Amino acid sequence: MLTSEQRLDAIHRLGRALADPTRSRLLLALLDGPNYPAVLADQLGLTRQNVSNHLACLRDCGLVRTQARGRQVSYELVDDSLVHALDDLLNVVWGTTRPHPQEAPAVRLREESYDFGQGSP
C-alpha cells in the first residue's frame, strides 16, 4: 500500500504532466501506441526538440518509458493501467463510462488502499 506521501507525490507528478498542453497532447497521442519523437513532432506540428523535452519530462514523471528500436528510441505509456486510467479520466470528464474487464477487483483495491486517516474506508 502506498503511503500518503507517495500518493501525494504521484498526484503531483500527474498534475505536472497534465498541466502543460503539449504534454497532454503527447499523452493522448501515445494512447494509440508507441511512437518516435520525430513522428510525434510531425503529427502535432511541433519541433523535435520541443517534443523531446516534453517526453523527457513525461519520463521523469513516470508516465512514459523508452524502447530502443535499432538506432532509434520510441516512447510509450508505462503500462496498460495508465491507458485505462487516462481513458477513464476522459470518460469521467465527458460523462460516459465504459467498464474494463477487471473493474470489480480494481474497485475493491481502491477501497482497501485509500486510507486518509478518517477511520475505515
Automatic annotation (TrEMBL):
TM regions (residue ranges): none
**Domain HTH arsR-type spans what residues?**
3-97
Region described as Disordered:
98-121
Q: GO biological process: any one? A: response to lead ion
Keywords, in A-Z order = DNA-binding
Q: Can you name this protein? A: DNA-binding transcriptional ArsR family regulator
**NCBIfam families listed in its UniProt record:** HTH_metalloreg
DNA-binding among keywords: yes
Q: Does the keyword DNA-binding apply?
A: yes
Which GO molecular-function terms appear in the entry? cadmium ion sensor activity; DNA binding; DNA-binding transcription factor activity; lead ion binding
Concerning SMART domains, the annotation shows:
HTH_ARSR
